[in-house]
Amino acid sequence: xxxxxxxIGLSAFVFSCTSxxxxxxxxxxxxxxxxxxxxxxxxxxxxxxxxxxxxxHGVEFFTTNIADPAKNDNTVSYGSxxxxxxxxxxxxxxxxxxxxxxxxxxxxxxxxxxxxxxKSITVLTQQAVSAHYLVNNTGDNExxxxxxxxxxxxxxxxxxxxxxxxxxxxSIGIEIVNSxxxxxxxxxxxxxxxxxxxxKKVAALAKDIITRYQIPATNVLAxxxxxxxxxxxxxxxxxxxxxxxxxxxxxxxxDAMKQSYYDMAVSTDFTSKYNDSAFIFSVQTQLQKFxxxxxxxxxxxxxTKKTIEAFxxxxxxxxxxxxxxxxxxxxxxxxxxxxxxx
Length: 342
Ligand SMILES: [Zn+2]
Prior knowledge:
Layout: H1 2-25, E1 53-56, E2 59-62, E3 80-81, E4 107-112, H2 117-126, E5 133-135, E6 144-145, E7 160-161, E8 164-165, E9 171-176, E10 181-183, E11 189-191, H3 196-213, E12 220-222, H4 223-226, H5 240-247, H6 255-267, H7 277-290, H8 302-315, H9 326-338
Parallel strand pairs: 4-9, 4-12, 5-9
Antiparallel strand pairs: 1-2, 2-3, 5-6, 7-8, 10-11
Helix pairs in contact: 6-9, 7-9
Zinc ion binds next to loops.
């Protein structure tokens, strides 16, 4: 477009020069004055700065944001340029970056591997599962990248959150080396804590990804949030509140809001209608409203219990019994109010 405008401008300029020369050479003098043609100003073409491009291992990258944030879902453009190399032709990309583009990465999903360090690497690189990043537990300062951020890694599986499904398509996955859980005699899951150095690594990595892709707080989730009937990771010992308080990563509720919903629940005798299908239906509706992919059955079925448990892993980790008590209800309401679906 800019080249075309420049050519038009140049033609107009050449034409006007030729006209002036013709006038000088022409000896014919009209008797009546001729209105002089208006001088048309050459259109001023605003030269936009070309986006900077850098080359790393044969892949070109934009080094500045070039997109129009107003046209994006959540993100601005910034990243690698992978293009065709058609035989006999040249793909020109330097001069024509469109502002109508955004990133495909809308979610950040956190996992634990349930394996030690060496096995985690083997499984995530040699088998049918993967993640973009693997955070080890060896106390060094390294984070392993397993998949290019612009490609899909296979970490989420069948998954859903709010209006999205199959989150492998739109997410970055971080696997954290952690043994997961063992079950006690009663079947209760006992989870293994994360160490502080590892959490610092996760926080720095997550912050970097969230900032670059402008991933909203509502889209920073546990694997258990997007697949509650199948997954528990990264479990109730993953410090979501600490990440929110210290690094502004992800969601957390406001205490005062939670308290007012709690007082309301207690004053209306929350437990008396616990087994009414209308009450169960409203619980399922509220979980769905917040984001969980849950069926509205009106029954305390296994999927509903596991979804409540997943919610508790994330937001009420002190007690993850899968029962919708007044506190869990109050936290859910406080979160819905703070993070409404837009
Ligand atoms: Zn997982």
